[in-house]
Write a structure and sequence with these properties.
The chain is of the alpha/beta class and 456 residues long. The protein folds into four domains: 2-119, Rossmann fold (3-Layer(aba) Sandwich), CATH 3.40.50.720; 137-218, Alpha-Beta Plaits; 227-349, Rossmann fold; 373-455, Alpha-Beta Plaits (2-Layer Sandwich), CATH 3.30.70. The chain has 16 helices and 24 strands. It has helices at residues 10-19, 32-38, 53-58, 74-87, 99-105, 108-113, 121-133, 167-170, 208-218, 235-244, 259-268, 283-288, 304-316, 331-337, 346-358, 437-455, and strands spanning 2-6, 24-29, 44-47, 66-69, 91-95, 117-119, 138-144, 149-155, 176-183, 186-188, 201-207, 227-231, 251-256, 273-277, 296-299, 322-325, 342-344, 365-369, 374-380, 388-389, 399-406, 409-411, 418-419, 424-430. Strand 4, helix 4 (74-87) and strand 5 form a beta-alpha-beta unit. Helix 7 (121-133) packs parallel to helix 10. 40% of the residues are buried.
């Protein structure tokens, strides 16, 4: 596919790096520092303003399959997307940061102006945090609704009952798989003899019903997340509080320093949300809130420094689960290394949305993890592939088949399940895999046919 990206800084660079190895990528950018980094990738850079007709033509948008506008100006993104729709049939993805643009272009006017996908990262992050909070102890929750698949990620802490046990001893529910372990900056595809260690981040995939049973392994008390403190009443805090307010019995306290913003929140949130006009960095005020009794504490102010300070103080006060926003993607690992349970970036979360949407048009990346260290990709089994049990395959290192899509059904596979021609595979791949999976399928098809001929 040909993909044109407007804006090559944080979001644009991550998208360009993700897509450039397998697709024809062109990035429009003006900043020399960003251009220097982009030129290290296998792509073409066009220097100029993406609202310029000549620049868009130079970037060959008329032949593009997708146009992603993620420059640092909402106005530039909107105008460039509208121009591209006049020049080509490319699917347009427009990033916005202001609520009024989202409200305007997501309504009837947006339909008339035919921007295909409007992406407001702060809204997506607020909704994403609410999903994570809904699963006690999980550090990542992702839904693949059309395939009846769910993904859960857990971090094993010191003293966890699973540490020292092997995956075989774990006794996963039928219909669930452990697909990856992130350990010491590396990725492990676990087997039955793989032993869990402290600080491992373990990813499970499977049918929703199976992962519901899995939750009990990590939340043995059965306690729900029904007492949540949020610091920061900006867009993310507002959207998060609104989402959590729909959970029956959930007690929500939202702390916001601006009186004017509190008035807006009071007018637009249910009465069940307790609003506190106060400074979340005030230690005495935080102590008065008895955060040690809260099930989850979320810091989503507009400052990484404040979020980190507030979250660390909450941790010191005995909060069971701490989530914070990291505006800078580079701060995610740093925050978590200091004891924050979950650090999230609105930019990374928005990129996941682009992946899921653009995959409908031929891109095979469904999701990525640890800033691109691993991915879930789609592969199609060749028409001439002889039906083969998974236990007879020696998969490439760094690869596991997480699901098989066959007809209208999704199979979470085990050793005796077979790969059949035209199966659509959901494959978890580390970026250190030794062989491309397409090449592997072609090679195995040849080997299996040769074996079958010899057997005759």
């Amino acid at each position: 596919m040909k993909i044109v990206i407007s804006g090559g800084r944080e979001i644009g660079f991550l998208l360009a790096r993700q897509y450039s190895s397998d697709n024809d990528v062109i990035v429009i950018e003006t900043n020399q520092g960003s251009i220097s980094e982009l030129e290290k990738l296998d792509l073409q850079v066009v220097r100029g303003n993406p609202t310029s007709l000549s620049i868009l033509q130079t970037a060959q948008v008329e032949d593009a399959h997708a146009f992603i506008a993620c420059a640092h100006s909402d106005e530039v993104n909107v105008i460039s997307c509208l121009a591209v729709k006049q020049l080509s049939k490319a699917r347009t993805f427009c990033f916005v940061n202001k609520i009024h643009y989202f409200e305007t272009f997501a309504g009837d006017l947006g339909e008339q102006l035919v921007i295909d996908s409007l992406i407001w990262p702060e809204m997506l992050l607020g909704e994403y945090i609410s999903e994570i909070i809904s699963v006690p102890e999980a550090i990542d929750v992702r839904m693949f609704a059309q395939e009846n698949l769910k993904l859960l990620e857990y971090r094993l802490k010191d003293g966890d009952c699973h540490i020292g046990r092997t995956l075989r001893e774990f006794a996963l529910p039928k219909g669930a798989l452990a697909v990856a372990i992130f350990r010491d900056n590396g990725v492990i595809i676990p087997g039955g003899a793989t032993e869990f260690r402290a600080n491992d981040k373990v990813i499970f995939m499977g049918h929703k019903e199976s992962l519901k049973k899995l939750e009990g392994h990590f939340n043995q008390s059965g306690k729900k997340q029904d007492n949540v403190i949020i610091v920061g009443g900006g867009n993310v805090g507002f959207i998060l509080a609104a989402a959590l307010s729909h959970i029956s019995g959930c007690k929500i306290r939202l702390i916001e320093n601006s009186r004017e913003r509190c008035m807006f929140l009071a007018e637009n949130l249910p009465e069940s949300v307790l609003l506190l006009n106060a400074d979340g960095t005030d230690v005495n005020f935080l102590k008065a809130q008895q955060p040690h009794n809260a099930d989850c504490f979320v810091a989503v102010t507009g400052s990484d420094e404040k979020n980190l300070m507030i979250a660390l103080r909450a941790r010191q006060m005995g909060v069971k689960r701490v989530i914070t926003r990291a505006h800078s993607i580079d701060n995610i690992d740093f925050f978590e290394s200091l004891g924050i349970d979950i650090a999230l970036s609105s930019q990374l979360n928005a990129i996941q949305t682009v992946h899921r949407s653009i995959s409908e048009d031929g891109i095979d990346i469904f999701a990525f993890f640890e800033k691109g260290k691993a991915e879930i990709r789609e592969y199609v089994v060749p028409n001439d592939f002889p039906p083969t049990q998974l236990m007879q395959l020696r998969l490439p290192e760094g690869v596991i088949i997480a699901a098989i899509r066959r007809g209208g059904h999704t199979i979470v596979p085990h050793g005796q399940d077979k790969l059949k021609p035209k199966d659509r595979l959901r494959v978890f791949c580390s970026n250190e895999q030794s062989e491309s999976f397409d090449d592997y399928l072609d090679r195995i098809a040849i080997e299996r046919r040769e074996q079958m001929e010899e057997a005759r």
